[in-house]
Design brief:
The protein has 640 residues and is of the alpha+beta class. Helix content is 38%, strand content 18%.
Length: 640
Amino acid sequence: MILCIAEKPSVGRDIARVLGATTSRDGYMEGNGYCVSWTFGHLCALLDPNEYNEQWKGWNMSSLPMVPARFGIKVTDDKGAQKQFNTIKTLISQAEMVINCGDAGQEGELIQRWVYQKAGCRVPVKRLWISSLTEDAIREGFQKLKDQSEYQHLYEAGLMRAIGDWLLGMNATRAYTLRFAKGVGKDRQVLSIGRVQTPTLALIVKRQHEIEHFVPRTYWELKTLYRDTLFSAQLPAEEDEYAITSLEHGQKLVDSIKDLPLEITSVEKKKGMEYAPRLFDLTSLQVECNKRYGLTADDTLKIIQSLYEKHVTTYPRVDTTFLSDDIYPKVPATLRGIQDYFPQVTPLLPLKADGGKGAGSLPKSKKVFDNSKVTDHHAIIPTGQRPDNLTELERKVYNMVALRFIAAFYPPCQVATTTVLACAGDISFKVTGREILVQGWREVFAKEKTDDEAEEQKTLPSFRKGESGPHQPQLQEKTTTPPKYYTEATLLRAMETAGKTVEDEELRDAMKENGIGRPSTRAAIIEKLFQRKYIVRDKKNIKATEVGINLIHTIISPLLKSAELTGRWEQKLRAIERGDYTAQLFLDELKQMTAEVVREVKADKSGMRCPVCGRGTIIRGKTRYGCSRWREGCTYAESF
């Protein structure tokens, strides 16, 4: 008997149907020489501290850091999980081969491996790796099974992620709670600290501090109206961004040119191409759904996971916006499968996937197909299955995915940008206009044009170099504005780029490896911060609560708060996955970092009795300790 173990019951039943295992049993399906069973979530987990050492059951500073000599796993306490594990264990003991049909990613690999280890699996294990749950994809996957050993690095990366979260979470949470939390015993507030959640919270707190302490500046912009067109002054580059910082200065500029003619010095028209928007990875889909429909990152993940399990979209937990070359020949069939739902497909149906060159060929662009940008999975696209029986929200998200896919095979949008330069006296002016000449891929989204896109169509009158005439200079008063609060969309982007503001797609791709967390975990991290009441929603904005702010201010170690440092850790985990970095070296670094975090907390003197006056307590500032009775004249101060 061959045993297949899937990630969840619904996926197991899909696989069982394809394999002919149609007889339903308690916890599995069987038939045609196969048994198909499933996990649901983490059946196994790392041991709790007291299961390594009885002395670690109580929370004591003297027992920190807790670093097991060897990490162990257990079946979780949930009765349903234990029952399913025992079913799988019995099936493994009877199997001649096991096929790992778990979620095709780092976490999915870890979930399965722990089950096999705990069940004492001794038979050969093969790996099914698929990007969609259609019958064709499952059949094709079973024809290309690989040995489990080929995914050893993937497992090691997942294992190190879990161990890292255990080491840092358990030790830092206990250390900070024992040292700084209010209350005693059961009433003590737990200060929850995590490898990803804490730097994410720190990003939110930092942005909120910038907003609350922002001091607005008033400045003026010099404009002039000529032939119903508003030109903007181009002030000298050596002056700062808000060069006109006083009304008097601005009025002098206006007076110096108001009686002079405005002369057109240059008219330049450039034609260019705009390419279709990138296909979706999980983060960009979550960002777009938050912007367009106000969906949370977690909502979007659940919806796209449901679409995957309904066989209408491909694997969702991906961090690439590209397709591999082997998808190209399948594109015509995918387009035919969805043509009844999208009239935009009609112009593409006669085209053939024959390399993308010449008339009658389906385009094959490096902006879409690039093997070097695809590792485990490609971008999220439709499978070509009929998208029937979808909820309203599922339909909206599905349409976003499908329209991006269709647009990728339309011609580029052709645009013309006109730049007009002018001068009045010594002051130069500029205006630009943009015109869409050929819609190209924009036709796909014609019914969904936003106000921003409508605003882009800004055509100018026909200007001629050398012409001149009267104009109306004017000052426009402006005020600098603070940065905006994070929304889930902008927070996801900040997590993806370790807190750096990046608009360029190419640069964002390069930074993904240094992001905080993984696409599949970011939604859960954000939700965890809400659940712990460290952050709250204010309409679309995300704001830190007093509890969250106090937690970040309490944390001494920059290692725990730095998005950049956490991003480097993520980079090493990805390197382990590729085989470019060893798990043992990473584990050694983890242990060293954990010890350093605990040492810093133990060395902190906050709250101790003042050694000078003996009456106050020591409080911590940004760079030094001082006595709480400094207003009463206590002179205790110590730098750190």
